[in-house]
Amino acid sequence: MSRFDPFDALYIDLYQLTMAQAYLRSGHTAEATFSLFVRNLPPDRGYLLFAGLEDVLRYLERLRFTSQDLDYLRSTGQFGDYFIECLAGFRFTGSVRAMDEGTAFFANEPVIEVTAPVIEGQIVETFLINQVNMASLFATKAARVVKAAGGAGVADFAARRTHGTDAGNKFARSSFIGGFVGTSNVGAGARYGIPTIGTMAHSFITSFDSELAAFRAYADAFPDSTTLLVDTYDTVKGVKAAITVANELGSRGSRLVGIRLDSGDMDSLSRIARQMLDDASLHYVQIVTSGGLDEFSIEALVNGGAPIGAYGVGTLAGVSADAPWSDAVYKQVTYDGRPVAKFSPGKATFPGPKQVWRCLDEGDERVAHDHLTSADADSPESNAITLLHQVMRDGAVVGKLPSLGQVRDRARLELGRLPESVLHLSGPASIQVSVSDELRAPSPGRKRI
Amino acid sequence: MSRFDPFDALYIDLYQLTMAQAYLRSGHTAEATFSLFVRNLPPDRGYLLFAGLEDVLRYLERLRFTSQDLDYLRSTGQFGDYFIECLAGFRFTGSVRAMDEGTAFFANEPVIEVTAPVIEGQIVETFLINQVNMASLFATKAARVVKAAGGAGVADFAARRTHGTDAGNKFARSSFIGGFVGTSNVGAGARYGIPTIGTMAHSFITSFDSELAAFRAYADAFPDSTTLLVDTYDTVKGVKAAITVANELGSRGSRLVGIRLDSGDMDSLSRIARQMLDDASLHYVQIVTSGGLDEFSIEALVNGGAPIGAYGVGTLAGVSADAPWSDAVYKQVTYDGRPVAKFSPGKATFPGPKQVWRCLDEGDERVAHDHLTSADADSPESNAITLLHQVMRDGAVVGKLPSLGQVRDRARLELGRLPESVLHLSGPASIQVSVSDELRAPSPGRKRI
Asked: A248 and A147 in one domain?
C-alpha cells in the first residue's frame, strides 16, 4: 500500500468501541458473521457496480490503534484499562468472502461477508460501509455516464467538487472502473496509475493580455498535448484564435489536440466549432465539452448528434448527484454458529452466511436472474455461477488482488451481460433475486425474545 | 496541526500544474488575486454558512511537494526539470483575506480572496474549492436540521454514509459549527474536541440470547451512560425490557439515559414509549430517534408534538442529500495589478479584489442587505460591517485562529441575525446583495480580446 492511505483506526462510530467493551466485559467474544448489502437500489438504478474492496482489504490488514489513539480513548474516561490493552494488541484475524470488484449486484445481495471474533467484526463496520457505499455509488454513476456518451471518451474533472479528498481520489478510481478514460486528479494518477488529463482554466486566459497570447504560451509549453479553452470571452472568436494556433502548431509539425467548450449551448456551439475547424481542414482537432454535465445532458447531446469527441464530467458525477446515498448496511447474520436476524419494520434481514448465484440465460450471455441461498447450499441450476469468493483468511489476503485494469475489464463484462432494459438511465427494469426457501424459513437456532 | 491531515500536494487538477509550467516558461509570473465564491445558492437555501477556512489555512502553510510527488511528475514526461525544481522549493507565500468561519454568506460574495504570485494562487485552487464547498454545504445542512429540531439535541451519526473519511470527519466538524451537540465519529472527537455520542447497534442485541440479556450486559459496562436500542424485534417489548433494566440500574443508584427508536412510525412509537416510561416513573429517560432523518422529517415530528428528546442524523445530512453540491468557483480577478474577468454566458465575473459589507437594520439586530464593492471602497452606509479580513500574510496565519467553539458561537449569532423568512427550510427569502457601480462598470484595465 502506498503512502497515501494512513488508515485511521478512529474513523469509527463510538458505539463500536462501547459495544466491544461490553462484549469483552460479559465474556461475549465468540465468532460472528456480518453481511454487507444494500436493502434497495437507489432511484433509477437497475444495478450497482461493486467497488471499494481493495481499500477494505488493505484496511483490514493494516488496522492498528496507535498509542495516540489509545491515549485519546483513555482520556474520555469511558474505557477501562483492560479494554485499552486489548485494543493495543488489536489485529483483524478474520475471514472475508466477497464479490469481485466490478461485479454488478442487486438489492439484498451480500457483497462482503466478514467472519471473525465478534469484536473484530464489529469494529470494522463503519469503515467498510463507508468505503463500499461510496465507491459503488461512484462506479455506478460513472458507468451511466459512459453509457450515455456512447463511445466518446469521458474524463473525471470532479476533484474540486467531491465531498473531500478521500471522495475525490476514490471517485477517480471508481469512475475508471466504470469506464472513464482518465482523471484530472494528479494524485489519483500517481496512486492508481490512471491516465491524467487536463486542459486549461479561464484564469490562464485572463492573466494574459489576449486570448491568443494565452493560447500561444500554452501551446509553446505543450506543443503535442494542448486542448484550448475557447469560451472565456466569446466562443466563436475563441475558436478562431484556436485555429490560428492550430495552424502555427501544424507548421511546426505538431497537432492541436482539441478545443474545450465549458459554457453556453453545447449542442449549437459544438456544431459551429466543428464547422469552423473542418473549414480550416482541422478535422483532427477534437471538441471537448465540460461544465455541469451528467448522463442525462450527455445523452441529450449524443442523441441530438452534437459533434463532441470527449466529455469532462465533474460535480454531478462526483457527488452522484441524483443518487448521493444508498442504504448500505452491515448486519450480523450469525453469532457463535447460530443464525441471527433482526425484525425491525422494513429492516428485517435473512439469517446466516449466504451465497449469491448468478444464473445466465441459455447462451451464457445475459443475466437471467440471481438466487440467494445459504453459503453451503448446492447450485440451484446448471448455468449458475457463484459471486462470493474467499478473499481473506486469518487476516491475510488470499492470492493476488486484481489490477485496476482487470477490475475495469470485469465491470465492462458485467455491464455487457445485463439486459439493455436494466441499463436504462431512467426507470430501468430489475433483475429478479429469488431467495431460497431455507433462508426464508424460520431458523431453529434463531431466537425471538 | 494534528497527525490527522497529511495534506497531499497532488490533490490537484493536472491543469494547475501544466498551466504553472506554461506560466513559468512564458515568464508570466506576476501577482494575481483569486476570489472564491458561489454563483448561486443551492435550492431551498436562503444562505450558506462559511466553513472550511481552518483547513485551507493549514494547507497553505504546509503545502510541499515531496520527493515521491516529484518523482511521479517527472515520470509522466510532461514536466521539464526546471519546473520540477521549482516545485521542489514550492512554498505558498501569498496573502489571504477571508470571512470568519461561521459567517452566513450569499451568492457572488467572495468568502476567500487569495493574492499571490500567479502560480501559487493557481496551484491551490482544487483543494480550496473542494474543502470550502464541502464544509459550507455541511454546516448549512446541519443548521437546517438544528432549526427543525427546535431545541432538541441533534447528533452526527453520518460516518458510515458520507462520501469517504475526509467527508465524515469534516461533516462532524461542520455539523458542530451548525449546532449539532456531538458526533458518533471517534476520530472527529479526538481531532476537534467534539463530544462523542453513541448507543448500540442491532447486532449487539442479536448476538445475545435475549434482548434483555443484551441490555443488561451493556448497562453493566456503562451504568451511567446507556441508551438502549429498543426496536430490534418488537419495539413495545423492547421498551418493556428497557424499563426492567432502568429499574435495575435505579436500584443501584444509576440512571438509564435513554432509549433509541431506529425504525417504524416514530411519531406513534415515541408517544407509546413515553407513556410506558412515564407510567414506570422514568420521566428522566430520554427518547432518541434515528434512521433516515433530515430537517423535513424532524420538522414534521416536532410540529406533531412527538415526545422526542434527541435526534441522531446520518445519511441524509452527511451527504447534504437535497443539495449535495454548490457551484463554488475560484476565479482570477486581477493579474499584475490589472482587474480581469471572464464573460462566458451565465458565468461572467466582476473584476478586481472585493469587500463584502453587511448592512444591519436600525436596531443592529437583523441583516438588512449586503453590498459588494471593490476592496478599497468606503463604507456604503453607517451601520455596515466588513466581512473580509486579512487572515494570512506572506504565507503565515495572521493572529490566532478562533476555536471550534468560537466558530460555533459565531454561526449561532449569524443565524440569529438572519430574518426568519431567510431561514425557511423550503422556498426561503433572499438577502439582497447589491453591487457597487464601480464593480459593474467596465474597467479601463480590463481587456476584451
From this structure: yes
Which domain covers residue B264, as residue numbers?
139-318
SS3 label, residue B444: coil
Does A67 contact chain B (CB < 8 Å)? no
Q: Specify the pLDDT at position A105.
A: 98
> Read out DSSP for A175-241?
HHHTT--EESBHHHHHHH-PPB-----HHHHHTSSSHHHHHHHHHHH-TTS-EEE--SS-HHHHHHH
* Closest Cβ–Cβ partner in B162, B263, B344 for A263: B344
Partner B, chain A 207-246, Cβ-Cβ below 8 Å: 207-212, 217-218, 220-222, 225, 231-234, 237, 241
pLDDT per residue as tens digits for the range A169-199? 999 999 999 999 999 999 999 999 999 999 8
CATH number for the domain spanning B268: value is: 3.20.20.70
The answer on A338 and A293 residing in a single domain is no
Residue A12 within a domain: no
The crossing angle, in degrees rounded to 10, of helices B14-25 and B81-88 is 110
Which residue of A lies nearest to B182 if distances are taken between CA atoms? A14
User: What 8-state DSSP symbol labels residue B112?
Assistant: E
pTM of the shown model? 0.96
Q: Which site among A18, A194, A203 would you substitute to test the B interface, given the most B Cβ atoms closer than 10 Å to its Cβ?
A: A203
Q: Compute the distance between CA of residue A170 and CA of residue A181 in angstroms, rounded to an integer.
A: 15
Name every chain B residue with its beta carbon within 8 A of the beta carbon of A340: 206-207
Does B236 reside within a domain?
yes
The HSE-up count of residue A90 (CA atoms within 13 Å, CB side) is 30
Whether A362 and A258 map to the same domain: the answer is no
Cα–Cα distance, A407 to B253 (Å, whole number): 58
For residue A5, the SS3 value is coil
C-alpha to C-alpha distances, B12 to A185, A198, B72, nearest whole angstrom:
6, 11, 14
Q: Is A389 on the interface with B (CB under 8 A)?
A: no
The verdict on A264 and A395 lying in the same domain is no
Would you call A284 an interface residue with chain B, using a CB distance cutoff of 8 Å? no
Q: What is the pLDDT of residues B119-165, one digit of tens each?
A: 999 999 999 999 999 999 999 999 999 999 999 999 999 999 999 99
Task: Write out chain A residues lying below 8 Å of B201, CB-based.
Answer: 15-16, 19, 122, 125
Residue B54 lies in a domain: no
If you count DSSP H runs as helices and E runs as strands, how many of each does chain A have, helices first?
17, 19
User: What is the DSSP secondary structure assignment for residue A63, as one 8-state letter?
Assistant: -
**How many domains does chain B fold into?**
1
Same domain, A229 and A363: no
Cβ-Cβ contacts under 8 Å, A205 against chain B: 342
Looking at the fold, whether A100 and A248 belong to one and the same domain comes out as no
The shortest CB-CB distance from B319 to any of A129, A160, A163 is to A163
Q: What is the CATH number of the domain that holds A392?
A: 3.20.140.10
Domain's final residue, options A318, A352, A369: A318
Q: Which positions 338-377 of B are in contact with A (Cβ < 8 Å)? A: 340-347
Which residue in chain A is spatially nearest to B32 when comparing CA positions? Answer: A207
Give yes or no: residues A309 and A427 share one domain: no
Residue A85 in any domain: the answer is no
| Chain A: closest CA distance from residue B423 (Å) | 24
Give the closest of A16, A220, A448 to B26, CB-based: A220
Q: What is the pLDDT of residues A107-136, one digit of tens each?
A: 999 999 999 999 999 999 999 999 999 999
Q: Is B113 on the interface with A (CB under 8 A)?
A: no
Q: Are residues A128 and A150 in the same domain?
A: no
The residue among A284, A318, A352 that closes a domain is A318
ipTM entry: 0.96
In B393-422, the residues whose Cβ lies within 8 Å of chain A are none
What's the gap in Å between the CA of A288 and the closest CA on chain B? 15
Q: What pLDDT is recorded for position A6? A: 60
